[in-house]
Structures are given as structure tokens and as C-alpha cells.
Structures
1.
Amino acid sequence: MTTHKAHCLILPYPAQGHINPMLQFSKRLQSKGVKITIAATKSFLKNMQELSTPVSIEAISDGYDDGGIYQAESFAAYITRFKEVGSDTLSQLIETLTTPGCPVSCIVYDPFLPWAVQVAKKFGLASAAFFTQSCTVDNIYYHVHKGVLKLPPTDVDEEISIPGLVTIESSDVPTFEINPESARILEMLVNQFSNLDKVDWVLINSFYELEKEVIDWMARIYPIKTIGPTIPSMYLDKRLPNDKEYGLSVFKPMTDACLNWLNHQPVSSVIYVSFGSLAKLEPEQMEELAWGLRNSNKNFLWVVRSNEESKLPKNYLEELKLASENKGLVVSWCPQLQVLEHKSIGCFLTHCGWNSTLEAISLGVPMIVMPQWSDQPTNAKLVKDIWEMGVRAKQDEKGIVRREVIEECIKIVMEEEKGKLIKENAKKWKELAKNAVEEGGSSDRNIEEFVSKLVTIS
Ligand code: UDX
């Protein structure tokens, strides 16, 4: 029987971009001897396409067991009910987990669910907030929480200068539509800082070398530990024999179709295109993107989720299949890490969700950034101007990135001198990401320290 050093209960927010990093972090803790139980909502577990993990998963309820957030009348209603029902069902779960040998000593929670701290206190457990976005973005929400910054900024031409952060334009801060639903989402993002004065650790899925200044500044206020990138080690090191990839995904990846197609493409020739698990593009934007990719005359692998497929131009998929050069493949979901590490990939056209951004950094893939909303414009700014790992596809005054702009960006990254520089920087960041999580690296040391403290309190 395995003896564990400590037992952590992990509480992710039930969305793909949040589950992924927390699952990978859990695996890392488990490899260091910590027992893990993930508390996932019944509705999320119900929709799971890929459910194979080496860690135990237990169900809690968000109060909407059939459809989760899609069943709720509004985002506000969802968050309120999740707090009520989630607190109760999480407490019940902790009670059942205290009986056998290794009781829970710490809750690692997504700060979208700040009520978890009260549950931890009720049971005398330690707590760690796990931020799934960049430290820069967290810093911006912190200043909104403190009332120092207003989102959206009042002046569109304003330069924003807040402690710990490079000066940015108002167009680089997180963006939200102006409607009550988006206002509630922003409120939740800002509320990540409520209860944060009561936690024992603040874990951030980033690495020190990537965001030094802002991490140092935030560390004066909170007990910050960067523990990322939470990429499976096999993608950062040599693939170890018997080391398996584990997933928790609501989408079914078309793995064979993607890899078979990529295996037939020349080295560094393919543009990989994805907008993550949530983004909904305007039909006009979809059309421009579709023709921009085709007109670039380059090979491309494009993830179009099935709920977005109807926005593709008429006959686009059929024509793509018929085209003799076999230049493009559209799939509904792919194994993104396997794709990004494939030798045929030349660049990543991305919405700059934080996971995708970190994954591209960790695998050294140059980016064309096309942010949509929330944290993505800030991530895009960092990719282009601070890490110099990509170019930005600029929108016109209607908010649409035109096909010519997409073609131009592809040309810059794939063919021009500037692209060479971007590729060199991408290599540099890949190395730094790998060093951070390797034994003795900045993130590894933080995880070791976290585990030793867990052991002393268990
Ligand atoms: C959301 C927000 O939109 C994002 O801005 C925030 O930083 C995190 O939460 P999402 O839009 O889904 O996430 O984007 P991202 O953070 O990039 O996460 C997507 C995840 O899905 C990545 O881990 C990526 O590897 C994975 N993915 C995506 C696949 O496995 N296959 C795909 O085909 C597409």
C-alpha cells in the first residue's frame, strides 16, 4: 500500500481552461508523494469525453447537475447557487475523506470559487488559491479590486501604469462586453482577491523568469508561489517510456486524423489555429480567417469546435477536402500539446488564452496573436512586446481581423527576417520554461517547498 505524505483536495472551476492546469499540477504533487482528490461538479463529469487520470475524482454539486452553467438562467445565478450547494457538498465530501488513513490537510481551490476558503476554515484545513491566469493579469484584477483601476478604462487612449507592471495601453487590459452578464464575469474575476488575506499560499501557473517584476511586486502582498508551466513533463523533457498522457476533457480530440495528417507535412510548414474552448467568433471573422488561411497558400490545421462549424463559408470544408494539394485540415478538437510539439508545426495562430500561451512558450512555438476577450489582450501584449515571441493580427475599426492582415502575419512569421528573430526568442523561452520545472528550477523549488509545508501540517 502506498503511504502518502499529505492529502490535498483540489477544487477546480468546471471549465476546460481551468481543469487542465489544475490536473497537471495535481499529477506533479502526486509524483512527489501527495495524495490527491479532485472535487469536480457532477455536470462536468457527466460531459467528460476523456476520463482517464491517475488521481481520484469525487463528485460535488454546483446545483445544476444536468447542464452546469448552461442550465442556469444567468451567470450570476450560477455563481450564487454554486456557492450555496458547492459549500455544502464540498463539506460533505471532506467529512467522508477524513475517515480513512490520510485525511485532507489542504484545499487547493480556483479563486473563481473564493467560498472554498470558508469551507477550509470550518474544517481547520490549510488553503491555497490556484490562479489559472498570468501574474500580470492577476495584478490588473488586484488593482481593480483595490479601486485603483477601472475596467473598462474611461479613456481609450489612456496609458495605464500600475505598480509592478510595464506601462500598457488601455487596449491591452482585459476586455469585456458592456452588458450585465459580462459585468458579472468581471466582478467574479475581481472577487478572486476576496478571502485572499486568509489563505496560506497563492499558487500561480506561471514561472518566475517569465514575469519577474510583477511576481516580485505581488509577492510583497501575498504568499505567492509560481509553480508553472503545468505542462506534462514528457513535453518538456524526453518522453519517458510508460509515461502516459492523462486527460479530463469535455471535447473528444481527433488525434489520429491530426497526427496522420501532420506526419505528411514538411518540417515547420504548418500553421496551427485554435481559439480554445470558449471563444465564439463573429461569422464575418470566421469568413475572413477561412480565406486568410487559404489565401496564405500555407498548410494549416484549424480547430473549429462543432458549435462554430456552421459559421464556415459555404462549401469550405468540401473544397478543402477536394483540393489536390491537401493543404488544410479542419478538426473539431485536437490533442493540442501533441500538435504543438510536432515537427511540422511552424507557428500557432492563437486567441492567447493563458493555457495556450504557456503551452506555446513551453514548446517554443512562435505565435500570431488574435485575442478575443478577458485576459487575452494582455497576454497578447506580453507575447508580442515583452517576450517578443509573436506578431499581432490587428483588427479594423469594426473589430474584425481581415484576411489580408492574416496573410501578412503568416508571411512575417514563416518567411521574413523578423520571423527568424521571433523563432530565436521562442527557443530561448522554451529553455527557460523547461529549466523552471526541472529539478532545482524556480517552479520545482516552489512545489518542493509547498509539499514540505504540507507534510509538516499533515
Ligand atoms: C479560458 C479563457 O478563455 C482564457 O482566456 C483563460 O486564460 C483560461 O480560461 P480557453 O479559452 O479555453 O480558456 O483557452 P486556453 O486557456 O488556451 O485553454 C484551452 C485548453 O484547451 C488548452 O490547455 C489547450 O491545450 C486545450 N485544447 C484546445 C486542446 O486540448 N485541444 C484543442 O483542440 C484546443
2.
Amino acid sequence: MAPEMIVVERHGAVGLIRLNRPKALNALCDAMMAELAEALRDFDRDPEVGAVVLTGSERAFAAGADIREMQDRRFPDTALADFIAPWEAVLTVRKPVIAAVAGFALGGGCELAMMCDTIVAAETAKFGQPEINLGIIPGAGGSQRLARAVGKAVAMDMILTGRNMDAAEALRAGLVSRVVPAERLLEEALAMGAKIAELSPAAVAMAKAAVNAAFETTLREGVRLERTMFLSLFGTAGQREGMAAFVEKRPARFPDA
Ligand code: HXC
């Protein structure tokens, strides 16, 4: 069935997913998250796609989980049917996923962006974890990923007061990798995706896994994992082509696997 709450496009070797509930500022409801999970899985399986860009609208990447849908939820039903579990589809994608954020990325919207591998922000972007104003706390990893991204003091400030951070502060704090004018946001994110999609898929997948390991394991374990992956890349066609191209002073043409 065609998705109704997201728009899925291909731009060359880059998959693009737009969250598309503009009237509700892309509030993340169950149906939208199920569609997003399926689109991500499809792109992950497609050998012609090398990277994925996830974006929203000009006004909002996403203003959070859908408060109307959550309003009548009660414990223990929330625990028995964990409605956040499908969100984690983003974390299972082996290809790089770039969040392109304009406008509000609040609550679950900020958490969804942080589940991606990197965030490119428009100058209009506003990040925040305002759940405290609703009598709840972040529930899709926000307390953990924001603290790792910007440090304890800033994460506490944002999560305890619910205040937003603008794009300039997000760049200074290390939450986003680049800030660009709003009209260039998609172009910049797609160009980043296209650059990645030209490279050796095995090296890209391992680079992503290695950096992500830095947030999930000890330094010693992470370095061990990196070493194993580094050494195994010497068994790939990508390594042969990359190094041959350098020595022969020509551009590399990486194989698909
Ligand atoms: C449902 C939402 C929504 C949300 C906005 N809308 N955010 N609906 N859930 N999270 C709807 C509004 O109800 C309104 O619908 C329409 O979008 C436009 O929003 P306005 O408030 O009229 O716009 P504006 O005055 O510009 O204010 C923008 C805003 C505000 C500052 C982003 O909408 C806001 O504070 N939204 C809630 C942000 C939030 O608390 N997010 C965290 C949610 S909890 P109508 O029909 O009235 O036009 C969360 C937990 C995640 O995310 C945990 C993991 C699952």
C-alpha cells in the first residue's frame, strides 16, 4: 500500500523520506512510524541506494510524538504494547541515515533526528525536549543521546526546563554537523548522501558501525571492534579499487559491494 503520512523518493543513489503531516507539524503517530519503518527497510534492502535522507517540512521536522494519540494511554498498557518500539527501525538501517532538519525538532522529533547518523540543520531549526511540560520525560532515547551529544550540563538544562536550542547553538554544542540556509537544506543533505553513496558500501557500513559503537561500548571494546573491521576491509573489492585508484592517480570507481 502507498504510504499516506510520508513521501518516499529516490534521488539517484540517495533515498529520501519526507515526513508529511504538515497540519500537525509532523506529529509522530503510530501509523506514520509504521510507514517510516517500512520505507527505511526498503531502502536498506535496495542495492541501488547508498544513503538515506530523512526530512520534514519547512516549519517542522517533527514537533514530537502525537500528543492527542498519547493523551489517553495509561500504564500498564503502555508497557505491554510498547508503542515506541517501532521507532527503533531507524537504528537497524545499515546504510547512513542523514536527518535534514528545518523548523521544530521537538520531543520525539529531536529523538528521531538523533537516532539518525548525523544531522544537517537549516538556520530555522529548533531542537528541544519539552516533554517535562507534559508531565513526562523523553522516551525514545532523548535523555541518553542528547547527553552524549551535548554533554550533561546542556542536556540537563534542556530536558529539565524544556527550552529549545536554535541551530547556531546546536552547531556549537555538537548536536548537528552543519547549518545551512533553509532553502539549501535538502540540496546539502542530498549532496552529502550522494557523496557517501559513491564510496565502498562495505567501508561505509563499517565506518557507521564503528562510530556508533563509540556510544554503546567501552573505549577498549570499541577500538577492538574498529581494528577487526579495519582489517576485514582488506578482503573487499572496495579496498583494492580505492588504493589502486590512488596509486594510479585516477578517480576511484567503487564496486557495489
Ligand atoms: C499532536 C501537535 C503536536 C504534537 C503540534 N501539533 N505539535 N499535535 N502532537 N506533538 C499540532 C497542534 O495541535 C496544532 O493542531 C498544529 O499542530 C499546529 O501547532 P500550533 O501549536 O498551533 O503551532 P505553533 O503555535 O506554531 O506552535 C508550535 C509548537 C507547538 C511550539 C511546536 O505546537 C508545540 O509546543 N507542540 C508540542 C511540542 C511537544 O510538546 N512535543 C513533545 C511531545 S511528547 P491544530 O489542530 O490545533 O491546528 C514526545 C514524547 C516522545 O514527543 C517520546 C517517545 C515516543
